[in-house]
Amino acid sequence: MVAVAVPRRQIPRKALIVGGIVLAWLVLWLVFRNVGTLALDASELTPLHRWINSVNDAVGASRNSNPVFLYFFNEIRLVIDEFVTFVQALIAQPSFGRPVPVIGWLGVVAIAGFVSLAVAGWRVALLAVAGFVFLGLQGLWQESMDTLSLTLAAVVIALLFGIPLGIWAGLSDRANRIMTPVLDFMQTMPTFVYLAPLTLFFLIGPASATIATLIYAAPPAIRITAHAIRSVPHNTVEASESLGATRKQTLLKVLLPSARKTIVLGVNQTIMAALSMVTIAALIDAPGLGKTVVKALQTLDVGTAFNAGLAIVVLAIVLDRVTTAATERRSLPRWAFFGGFGVTGVAVYFSYTYLWAAEFPSEVEIGSSIRKGATAVTEWVQDSLPVITNGFKDFVTSVLINPLQALLAESPWFLVALVIVALSFLIGGVRAAVVSAACLGVLVATGLWQDAMITLASTLVATILVMILGVVVGVWMGRSRRADRFIRPILDAGQVMPAFVYLVPILALFSATRFTAIIAAVVFAAPVAIKIIADGIRAVSPATVEASTALGSSSWQTIVKVQLPMARRALTLAANQGLIYVLSMVVVGGLVGAGALGYDVVAGFSQGQLYGKGLAAGVAIVVLGVMLDRLTQAAAKRWTN
Amino acid sequence: MCAVRNKQSRNGRRNRSEWFGVDPVISVGNLWKVFGSNASQVVASDELKSLSRQELMDRTGAVAAVRGVDFDVAPGEMFVVMGLSGSGKSTLVRCLTRLVEPTAGTIMFEGENILEADAKRLRDLRRNKFSMVFQHFGLLPHRTVADNVGYGLEIRGVPRAKRGERSQEVIDLVGLTGYEKSYPDQLSGGMQQRVGLARALAGDPDVLFFDEPFSALDPLIRRDMQSEVIRLHREVGKTMVFITHDLSEALKLGDRILIMRDGQVVQVGTGDELVGAPADDYVRDFVKDVPRSHVLTLKWIMRPPRPDDELDGPELSPETVVREAVRSVLGADKPVKVVRDGELLGVVADEEILGVVAGEV
């Protein structure tokens, strides 16, 4: 009881201070409104932005003379470019003087079916074949194959480095200690931010896209491999050692086979992450489905965006099912293996030789109907549901977004900075205050203070919505097995989908505004938060819940007084992860009307004179991320101890 | 309790002096294992070594798991190390094969100090001379029973055909015939431990180490497995070092028992020695609930003949277990003579027997 009583008595005092700070802020806001907001017009540049532009120009000019570029970056780019071009030549692009790729649609479908059959069984093989044929029917065969080529190329390279690094981190404590913080940083960094610096070194195009993708996709492979090696039971390893196995024998015969299932799971995560990033990399001119979506979004052509988005989903489902099923132990009968092999060989030969098997027949096509259907539905929704959608949109906008944004973006910068540093001090002591002050300093230096504040406002609103959803659905799932069984697959699917795909239906519902970007971020971040909270609620000891029920608590009392307090570690983790996920959608939000930092980044990719500003905006997003991550972690520490 | 008799009748052939007439297989001298970054300083200092575990922990932060342990194991002996959890027994057995690296001391195995063996020699020893059975089995989940059993041979480089033959032999020996193609997760705990046992036997080692192999099994299965080990010990005649926290298991299996507490040896001796002459209160408290008539032999209860004793009654050996002698002693109308090699050692009459039997009630 003492443990409960002590923080209770403290909270009111602290709440009083926080309340005081906020009140003072409001008063000063009224006085100083729109003074010192460090606003910057969309086309306006600061000296820093111009300087980055000049660096970019200088790098561009010396790209073929500077030895660092000549012998390092250019070499990497060339090798990766060669590799990607090679994969594209095999399945996607006309190559080797032929009007079609080496392996045509029939061959690709047959290979997809055969590989799925071998690693995942009949059902998944059928799904794979159907899925690939559907891509062709959508009229997006070549785009799909471009996306697939880039994904596969990035995955191969990511695994080539990731699995050995993971094994190393699994075996050596020192390697693990060094790698963990690096991977942590790579994962907390908003994903789309490193696109910009990469283009500085590797130009815009498939090579940069592949490198960005593999930076994004390699961490799960490393992490999960290391985790898999580490979680092989100690006594199994000891038993092998006691029989006189060498380190190599133990690795090859005990650790890797025991860890196989988990490592395949890591491969699955890597593939899904890669697919997600490849579609986003359309922003830096990566070919494929992502590009179709981006173009359609920019012209607000929901039908086309939906068709291409659907293709991404289909590709994601096929890749996910195949690699997930591959974790199971299975063996194919010999006749089926060789039969399948033969059929595949013939199909590949046909697709190499005959045009009908190389180019997907354009007579059978459902893509245009999908486009028309999606457009019609969108128009219908926009015509018939504005009361609901607009009502919801206006409500959230006027109640949450506008006040918060006004407060953050229309206050003088020093006032906001002071408030944030003071709150940081209250939450995490001197260290947190110093970190926040440094981050705020960088924000000012980027010249994008007001944009950063607008983005911060949207991020906070999105995170609040994520937490509301997370607590409501998470508690429901944590308390009801049936709800869990029903909702969890939906969440899993939501996490597998590449981030782009969400934008399409949301855009259709709410058209391009700040609010649309916030909802997209919520949809992206909510599954993680819900799952963490549901697991936290479930982990509360049933004996405690039973005791509470036996004392006559109502369900509401049990939730509020027992389950939520006991799951507070999960709650803080969910808030932290929710924030990070929301923040990583900022750039994507820039595509659908979020404005501010997201728009700055997107504009930086497409317009040369805004390059420096875009890069600075990327840095600002990272800095916001670091600050919010530190703060939530400090809060979590304080609250859970 | 028939289990105890089983062991006693087996043990009846040997007595304590026999364990010292031959060269030991394993001879452990002043063995220390200290966990902590300053372990070597601890064992270098006589002052630190004389501290209790808790004092050492408080002063240096180091944990002394094994503290100056000495013992010998004779060829063909079943040597049991018994202690409660935290007594250091599992660390001790891991030190013997250097799965845990000892901090100081000697471990002589067939005349060779194992602590001086290099990595290659150590692997050779592990492949050919020792093997170990673990509490949680340590089986490879991705391999069949046959492949698990053959694993030790596989890493030695034994060709597949020969491996299969030998695996089958030991699988038959431990009673797993018919389960060769099963995977560990398809077997019960007792069966899994049989696989562990077969794997240890497959390499035909000189010494088998058992680290609480039956603690994770339920009581009935545990009894079966204990009998199985006794049978194997009789059939293959290997030296065995067996770790347990269960006194009745120790008494049932052990030719000799070493009792450990806080990393130190409290007493080494046969079961009847521990019960008949406990070294201190700790051991006395431990063996308090053991049915004494099942463990003690006549030599522990006999008395010198008194002048009024009639010395023409029946004769029994001093190694006879009390409960086996009850009927003869109570049935005879004269005291029973305890005789070894024709020499009269003492006599046992009704009151001595009843003293033991009544003391238990």
UniProtKB/TrEMBL annotation, chain A:
<dbReference type="InterPro" id="IPR000515">
    <property type="entry name" value="MetI-like"/>
</dbReference>
<feature type="transmembrane region" description="Helical">
    <location>
        <begin position="432"/>
        <end position="450"/>
    </location>
</feature>
<keyword id="KW-1133">Transmembrane helix</keyword>
<feature type="transmembrane region" description="Helical">
    <location>
        <begin position="15"/>
        <end position="32"/>
    </location>
</feature>
<feature type="transmembrane region" description="Helical">
    <location>
        <begin position="404"/>
        <end position="425"/>
    </location>
</feature>
<feature type="transmembrane region" description="Helical">
    <location>
        <begin position="578"/>
        <end position="598"/>
    </location>
</feature>
<feature type="transmembrane region" description="Helical">
    <location>
        <begin position="515"/>
        <end position="534"/>
    </location>
</feature>
<feature type="transmembrane region" description="Helical">
    <location>
        <begin position="304"/>
        <end position="323"/>
    </location>
</feature>
<feature type="domain" description="ABC transmembrane type-1">
    <location>
        <begin position="452"/>
        <end position="632"/>
    </location>
</feature>
<keyword id="KW-0812">Transmembrane</keyword>
<dbReference type="InterPro" id="IPR035906">
    <property type="entry name" value="MetI-like_sf"/>
</dbReference>
<feature type="transmembrane region" description="Helical">
    <location>
        <begin position="102"/>
        <end position="135"/>
    </location>
</feature>
<comment type="similarity">
    <text>Belongs to the binding-protein-dependent transport system permease family.</text>
</comment>
<feature type="transmembrane region" description="Helical">
    <location>
        <begin position="191"/>
        <end position="217"/>
    </location>
</feature>
<keyword id="KW-0813">Transport</keyword>
<feature type="transmembrane region" description="Helical">
    <location>
        <begin position="610"/>
        <end position="628"/>
    </location>
</feature>
<feature type="transmembrane region" description="Helical">
    <location>
        <begin position="490"/>
        <end position="509"/>
    </location>
</feature>
<dbReference type="Pfam" id="PF00528">
    <property type="entry name" value="BPD_transp_1"/>
</dbReference>
<feature type="transmembrane region" description="Helical">
    <location>
        <begin position="456"/>
        <end position="478"/>
    </location>
</feature>
<protein>
    <submittedName>
        <fullName>Glycine/betaine ABC transporter permease</fullName>
    </submittedName>
</protein>
<feature type="transmembrane region" description="Helical">
    <location>
        <begin position="335"/>
        <end position="355"/>
    </location>
</feature>
<keyword id="KW-1003">Cell membrane</keyword>
UniProtKB/TrEMBL annotation, chain B:
<comment type="similarity">
    <text>Belongs to the ABC transporter superfamily.</text>
</comment>
<dbReference type="InterPro" id="IPR003439">
    <property type="entry name" value="ABC_transporter-like_ATP-bd"/>
</dbReference>
<keyword id="KW-0813">Transport</keyword>
<dbReference type="Pfam" id="PF00005">
    <property type="entry name" value="ABC_tran"/>
</dbReference>
<dbReference type="InterPro" id="IPR003593">
    <property type="entry name" value="AAA+_ATPase"/>
</dbReference>
<feature type="domain" description="ABC transporter">
    <location>
        <begin position="51"/>
        <end position="287"/>
    </location>
</feature>
<dbReference type="GO" id="GO:0005524">
    <property type="term" value="F:ATP binding"/>
</dbReference>
<dbReference type="InterPro" id="IPR051921">
    <property type="entry name" value="ABC_osmolyte_uptake_ATP-bind"/>
</dbReference>
<protein>
    <submittedName>
        <fullName>Glycine/betaine ABC transporter ATP-binding protein</fullName>
    </submittedName>
</protein>
<dbReference type="InterPro" id="IPR017871">
    <property type="entry name" value="ABC_transporter-like_CS"/>
</dbReference>
<dbReference type="InterPro" id="IPR005892">
    <property type="entry name" value="Gly-betaine_transp_ATP-bd"/>
</dbReference>
<keyword id="KW-0547">Nucleotide-binding</keyword>
<dbReference type="InterPro" id="IPR027417">
    <property type="entry name" value="P-loop_NTPase"/>
</dbReference>
<keyword id="KW-0067">ATP-binding</keyword>
